[in-house]
Amino acid sequence: MTRSALTTPPPGAEEPRIHLNAPPAGTELGSHYSRCFGCGADHPTGLRILATTPDGATVEAQFTVGEAHQGAPMLAHGGVLAAAMDEVIGMSIWLFHKPYVTGRLETDYLLPVPVGTTLHLRAWCNGIAGRKAYLEAEGRIGAPDGPVAVRAAALFIEVDMAHFARHGDAAAIAAEHTDFEVNP
Q1: What pTM value is reported for the model?
Q2: Which three-class secondary structure state does DSSP give residue 129?
């Protein structure tokens, strides 16, 4: 994937470091919000991506394309694939124990993805500069070493939890994130 200057770490960006409280290898990562389209178990048509971390710094997940996710007949919608990339990238940056939001997402579609296909997703951070994190992800068809169908590069921006309270539902955030202060 050729990344733009906006998703490439600048000179001097810090290498990501595994957080002291990173989950142990193989740990399943929970949903960040139960009604999230990407990872929420309570979203009726969502992707319901379940992820694990093999090392506390990267994320691996699987996503099976269902009929509700098609664009062209029996093929995944490109926007759904971009959402899956955004979700797995967002899960990888959450490992740093700081809230981030997507600032930019670049997605390359390399192969069509038929309905019923399981995509094996992997995401990692390439560098951090101030509040900006530079990340990548890939989705492989059928197996972790299968052909790459989709790749993404992203710029995520660190925010505080008050950001979600100001622009979303503070009560829902507080109910699901009791370990964060969300009062603006």
Answers
A1: 0.86
A2: strand
